[in-house]
Amino acid sequence: MSKATIDDVAALAGVSIKTVSRVVNKEPNVRQVTREKVLAAVAQLDYRPNASARSLAGNRSYVLGLLYGTPSANYILDVQVGVLNLCRPQGYDLLIHPCVYRDENLVEDIVELVRQKRIDGVILTPPLTDHMEVLSELERLEVPFVRIAPTLNKELSPYVETNDQEAAYDMTGQLIAMGHRDIAFITGHPDHRAVAKRFDGYQAALKDRGIPFRPDLVENGLNSFASGEVCARRLLGRQPRPTAIFAANDDMAAAVMMVAHQQGIRIPDELSVAGFDDTPVAYQLWPALTTVRQPVQQMARKAAELLLKRLKGKDVPLPVGVLSSSLILRDSTGPLSGVAGS
Amino acid sequence: MSKATIDDVAALAGVSIKTVSRVVNKEPNVRQVTREKVLAAVAQLDYRPNASARSLAGNRSYVLGLLYGTPSANYILDVQVGVLNLCRPQGYDLLIHPCVYRDENLVEDIVELVRQKRIDGVILTPPLTDHMEVLSELERLEVPFVRIAPTLNKELSPYVETNDQEAAYDMTGQLIAMGHRDIAFITGHPDHRAVAKRFDGYQAALKDRGIPFRPDLVENGLNSFASGEVCARRLLGRQPRPTAIFAANDDMAAAVMMVAHQQGIRIPDELSVAGFDDTPVAYQLWPALTTVRQPVQQMARKAAELLLKRLKGKDVPLPVGVLSSSLILRDSTGPLSGVAGS
DNA sequence: TTGAAAGCGCTAACAA
DNA sequence: TTGTTAGCGCTTTCAA
């Protein structure tokens, strides 16, 4: 009973294998009685279609590939969950494929994956979303793909994005509204262009509020805690010292908080700190970190949805999903003590 | 050129397809000249064996399945990386399969995955490692599996484990050596038996050092930050107040630190805090958290290694891997101020 | 609405 | 050391 094939089912149900195939694949044009007969046989034999045979004959695998560089664990896991939640109920599984962005075998690895496993579709996360070589290779392979938060060549594929820039703009606006004028910014990793938009939002907010931009209050981080620490030390040495620091991600913001603690700078009384991403770290810090939450799971789910739609031929011309990030105001930001608000 | 088959290669190389198959699968008994001819043809045609055909004919898929409940993102990602590092170079890919431990479809889902995708082997992480129903189903399906940190029925499969209990023992010993006597413990989620061993280590250390066990200094957490917060408030209300709190994981330890901060209790002067896992949170907290680091990636790698060995028939009788955790002493623990060390 | 027959591209006996 | 011949279990024309 452990390995019934389509022939067994057909024999038991007294129909041809083609009919079994129709029923199993939920195709139309099968009489209700026939369908029921087949389903009964399927149940009785505990029949499971063999994915390999199906894949070989049908030239598709019911497997999606998830390609990612090495962003944070939480981000990736959220993406995985979001994608799986949508695609598993539809019979698709997920093959994961972490990549090293600067690896010379990057493209070759991907080609191998797609061609060998007959991957039906690919989902890309930053910074791979903007790796032109990868993108053109995927096009050459004619495998449909969808991108989460791409920044370049958006016409190349369906994609999902958030309003990062706007969120950074709003966060900066909040700080300004609290009375801050000397607001520093720690940028993200240069490979990670999505993160660059956050800096744009910061600059735009300053400009719109007529706050002079101080280049000495910008430090370039690499998304890591360690890089944030270096930036924080520099920024806290500037004169006049910034009264708020906005980091392009939570890890770097956490580093700012640590440096501030070490230097006896009180948060938020003497220094407000804001991050971006709302990682678990954010609420485990003390004081809890003000940050921006991206709906990562939903983005991934939406991306999977767009991809599956493509696979099923519903060829909507370049569908695009836009989801909103939200400000999470916690305790690490506040009005300057002894400073009047604006 | 995009879809050469084994026949094309055979034709171009002037050999039979069986010979091509031999070369591609690195089988012995092929003359060097022949091998080179074939490899040249493979390169020229950019031939990639079709995984589905291979799987169908050979009755195996070159895909491993990773089953996990919902432990932390970092843990899972480390496991994924560790497994992939070992299995990708050997031609195996990884299908991920997050499970809901208490879901009634749990077993059915797994059966479907294994049978449909013809998964060659399965890797289990806690708490699924101890889910008897899942285990016996896997046995019935006759799919080889390996477990990471199982606590029950260890004879059922190869497995990899660490010396959790010993590490907890050592950590407790450290606290005692620093002069602490009233050491509290926050236990982990009851489904997660691996975490229970940490409590055993704590108790053993107290006993061996002749420190009376105070049941009022034990609180039952659920591995989450929120549960840790509740436990911390209770523990810090006990009389006499504990001078150290050892939590079964970092998230709960982080909660202890937050509550201490809120109550104005200085760390480590008035309270030492220790965690377990060395998650990124640990060093982003202030003061940085003393904790225990498990070599998760290496464990996963080892697990994959044991599994692949099994698949290749080298049937070592129940191989077992044991790796060591290490204490990471940071700033959240220290001698009591004004209290003489032991 | 149903079925018959022909592969999909490979591996696995078995021969030679 | 190499080749021949069957399938693996499905999907897909194309007929009926």
TrEMBL record, chains A, B:
Residue ranges of domain HTH lacI-type in the record: 4-58
GO molecular function: DNA-binding transcription factor activity; transcription cis-regulatory region binding
Signal sequence residues: none
InterPro entries: HTH_LacI, LacI/GalR-like_sensor, Lambda_DNA-bd_dom_sf, Peripla_BP_I
Keywords assigned by UniProt, alphabetized: DNA-binding, Transcription, Transcription regulation
Keyword Transcription regulation: yes
Superkingdom of the source species: Bacteria
Entries under PANTHER family matching the protein: LACI-RELATED TRANSCRIPTIONAL REPRESSOR, LACTOSE OPERON REPRESSOR
The name this protein goes by in its record: LacI family DNA-binding transcriptional regulator
Species annotation: Cellvibrio polysaccharolyticus
